[in-house]
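Z., the sequence and structure:
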Amino acid sequence: MRRFAALCLLLVLPSCGPALVQADVTRFHAANAVEQPHSFTILPDPGQAGSLEFQRYAELTAAQLQRVGWRPLPASGPAETVVTLHWGGDEARTVTWQSPTSVYSGMGWGRHGHWSGAGIGVPFGDPFPYYETRSLTTFPKWLRVEITDAAAAKAGQRVVLFEGRAVTESGGREIAPVVPYLLQALFTGFPGASGTTVRVRVPVE
């Protein structure tokens, strides 16, 4: 039962209270590299070029960067940094637990023949002597943002200024519904302490 209570904190489960997306956020950044706002452009990887999904996530990422004072520039502009995005999901996870219940069912033979049915138990001692097996399947999802130095890239070098990853779990397979919340979690307290993982709760709109 305690496992289920812990999962309620991790997942978008309205039955556990106000709906929240809880994400584990890990960030790394070079010293003083992203403390001050920079201009940026968001570029797709080769496999993301022309993707409408990428364009949507890029818009959401740009909005989060602007919120912390960064300035967007077109790809052809002299941006100081380049932002790239990656996202995906991992294998489903199923948790099984025993839940107490006062409802029982049974069948047998009695004076008037065969009977079957369900009812409310009236136990003596333990108020919940009956247990049923329950399970919950969740799908881990993650989103990663990387910021590199644009001038170094033009010189043929790769200099990473910031990389961050937000991970959550929910009951659906699709990642699109939770991407806005993953980004919001990732940029909460940006840039954050380098090399640490924090748990961020984002209210569901």
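DSSP finds four helices and ten strands in the chain. The mean pLDDT is 82.

Let me know what you think.
H.
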